[in-house]
Amino acid sequence: MGDEQRDWPERLHVVTGKGGTGKSTVAAALALGLAAGGRRTLLVEVEGRQGIAQLFGLEPLPYAERRVAVTSGGGEVRALAVDPEEALLEYLAMFYKLGAAGRALRKVGAIDFATTIAPGLRDVLLTGKVKEATTRTADGRRAYDAVVLDAPPTGRVGRFLNVTEETARLVKVGPIKTQSEGVAKLLRSPMTAVHVVTLLEEMPVQETLDAIAELTALKIPVGRIVVNGARPPLLAGGRVTKAEIKRGLTAAGLPAGPATVTQLAGEAQAHLTRRELEESLRMELAEVGRPTIELPLLPDGVDRTTLDQLAGLLMRGRS
């Protein structure tokens, strides 16, 4: 393991965040960063959005582990879009030997029926597949050096991750109890960390704080807070006067009429007010006591180049 990966020692990295904070982008960048130097990582999504395929410019992913990227030093990122129906068929074949019979159940709609009336079962199957990939071995070594899960948003991540604990408590015997206990144990072990992605805005920060409190109460390890879309300060001082703006415009040979100066003064004040709010939110996040990384705003969108840039920043642990 390289020096940079030592800062991310866990084997299962769960990435969550309020919708719109860029959690899928951060998950993809983290998978790339952890694969550098000849390592192999698996990037998993469970929400059926095919977000991984879009980020890497690929066709929709099947329910199979496919290589989506190679990294420096011969590293490799594979991806898996977990489908609840396929996961249930796999589960039935593995534990109940219902190969063809399981496929027949799909034809009559029984699979969809089962995951609809028992949504907890759906989450058990999804987390169970993630656990299987995390602990899988091949030829005496782990199949993946790390698994990155693009998890549901902060509003439901606690329920999603805790469903196996609830299932293990309710189901008295059988394979699903054993599987649920195994997943619950992994999620509460040092092998797992839940990283929370946020923006420096009031609602995402509040959801971040709520999610961390919920995960802590559930005894699920919290990793890092990733502040996404951070903007550099545009003004060095705490206040800009109209006179200063006029002098600056004049020195630059630009129009410095009253209307222009007033408009720029208003924009400067709005920027400073925004910065004050952001600093206040940073302080709230700092009080949680978790390591924090800031990633820059990407005004031109996300592509493989920017994903690699974010991967490097994540691995170095700083913006």
From TrEMBL:
<dbReference type="GO" id="GO:0016887">
    <property type="term" value="F:ATP hydrolysis activity"/>
</dbReference>
<dbReference type="InterPro" id="IPR027417">
    <property type="entry name" value="P-loop_NTPase"/>
</dbReference>
<protein>
    <submittedName>
        <fullName>ATPase</fullName>
    </submittedName>
</protein>
<feature type="domain" description="ArsA/GET3 Anion-transporting ATPase-like">
    <location>
        <begin position="13"/>
        <end position="185"/>
    </location>
</feature>
<dbReference type="InterPro" id="IPR016300">
    <property type="entry name" value="ATPase_ArsA/GET3"/>
</dbReference>
<dbReference type="Pfam" id="PF02374">
    <property type="entry name" value="ArsA_ATPase"/>
</dbReference>
<dbReference type="InterPro" id="IPR025723">
    <property type="entry name" value="ArsA/GET3_ATPase-like"/>
</dbReference>
<dbReference type="GO" id="GO:0005524">
    <property type="term" value="F:ATP binding"/>
</dbReference>
